[in-house]
TrEMBL record:
Binding site for Fe cation: 62, 117, 234, 238
Major location category of this protein: membrane
Keyword Cell wall biogenesis/degradation listed: no
Top EC group: oxidoreductase
Originating species: Geodermatophilus tzadiensis
Pfam families membership: BCD
Cofactor(s) annotated in UniProt: Fe(2+)
UniProt entry tagged with the keyword Cell membrane: yes
Name under which the protein is recorded: Probable beta-carotene 15,15'-dioxygenase
GO BP terms, alphabetized: carotene catabolic process
GO molecular function, one term: monooxygenase activity
Mode of membrane association: Multi-pass membrane protein
Length: 334
């Protein structure tokens, strides 16, 4: 199993990604530790849905500027950008239609796509944090995606069953016999092997993150574990990447300033996020509780995830390492 790159050189790359990468790494680990700490000291009990719903809401803005990513990378003008936004909306609409027409197969594909999206997001973040080119790391990505998503789903199968049954008419929402056991028997030893490989390569932060994810998904309630992973780990790390993609942020990030780039991101993400929140508010009013909301929200979440995953896959295609940038003084940032 090929280990992920060592982030130890992040401060020396001189790229716009260094500052947001440090901040995202800190937020991820602190949030995961906080959820685990609450569980081992007081227990989440029947309040585990709070981190789930909170994480889903916190994670909404991270894909809200997908329509601007090609403009950042390719310097597209308004016409191409509008065409891309229409195509994005079309993919989302087709996904929603397919999900509502064939919810069973669509849910299975959605889960696998999401696991792959989470895993490749982890490996790409690690590459960029280390100042190296984004590489295809299929096996580590599969392991990390399985750890982040499949393990909580298996552990929380009983709690998720009513949601799945609501999404898939005629289903009792339970996994086929033996599937959960097989997934755990594959993913957990693979995660241990990945962590060991990283340790042997002295890639300490990466190994610690695999361990932190494992503790999160095995100790925290499954719903809380996925909520904090989605909203405070995956979404935060993707946002860090988007900040570094925006050419308007280069000078600020080279100087280590995160405030102005975050404000630019908030402004760009505000309208799409408010639109989705308005739809969710309408769904909540008719959902009759958080389980109903999640069940009603799944087709919408899938519709947003598929084009988002395609944009990120394009962003993740193998390429050169991030270029060094010039600090405001004119020196190459170190």
């Amino acid at each position: 199993m090929r280990p992920l790159p060592d982030p130890g050189t992040a401060d020396r790359t001189g790229t716009p990604f260094a500052a947001p990468a440090r901040a995202a790494t800190t937020v991820s680990l602190v949030a995961a530790a906080a959820v685990v700490l609450v569980e081992v000291t007081a227990g989440w009990g029947d309040r585990a849905w709070l981190p789930l719903v909170g994480g889903l809401l916190l994670g909404l803005p991270h894909g809200a500027v997908d329509h601007l990513v090609p403009a950042y990378r390719l310097r597209w003008g308004p016409a191409r950008l509008a065409a891309f936004a229409l195509g994005y909306a079309a993919v989302a609409t087709v996904t929603w239609v397919l999900f509502t027409a064939a919810p069973g197969p669509a849910l299975a594909v959605f889960v696998l796509l999401s696991a792959w999206h989470f895993g490749t997001g982890e490996t790409a973040f690690a590459d960029l944090r280390a100042g190296r080119p984004v590489r295809r790391a299929a096996l580590p990505a599969a392991v990390l995606g399985g750890l982040a998503l499949l393990v909580p789903l298996v552990r929380g199968a009983e709690e998720a069953a009513p949601v799945v049954a609501a999404v898939v008419p005629g289903s009792d929402g339970t996994l086929p016999p033996g599937v959960g056991t097989v997934l755990l028997a594959v993913v957990l030893p693979a995660a241990a092997a990945l962590a060991l490989a990283l340790l042997l390569e002295t890639r300490w932060t990466e190994a610690a993150e695999v361990g932190a994810l494992a503790v999160l998904v095995l100790v925290a309630p499954p719903l809380a574990a996925f909520g904090v992973y989605f909203g405070c780990w995956h979404a935060v790390r993707h946002t860090a990447r988007v900040l570094a993609e925006d050419p308007a942020n280069v000078a600020d990030l080279a100087a280590g300033r995160l405030g102005p780039p975050l404000r630019r991101f908030a402004v760009a993400a505000a309208l799409p996020t408010v639109a989705v929140l308005a739809v969710l508010a309408l769904l909540w009013s008719a959902a009759g509780g958080w389980r109903g909301l999640v069940a009603t929200d799944l087709p919408l979440l899938a519709a947003l995830t598929v084009p988002h995953a395609l944009v990120v896959a394009w962003l993740d295609r193998p390429g050169p390492a991030p270029a060094r940038v010039r600090a405001p003084s004119g020196r190459v940032a170190r």
